[in-house]
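Entries read chain and fold; for instance:
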Amino acid sequence: MGRVAVVSFQNAHVRYRIALDRGPEVEAVVGRSRGKLLATGSDVWVCANPSAVQVLPLEVSA
């Protein structure tokens, strides 16, 4: 479980930052045609296909 912390509209996609109840925040990028839009503060259930997950560094050296 988690809660939507930030909603950002990016053309045909929506980026959600989700604060997990027992962990860090995760970001999800979803096509706008994939169901109703979620509002900031919405309680959500999070699952992901492991092959679709990307783990990125916080910083990249120049």
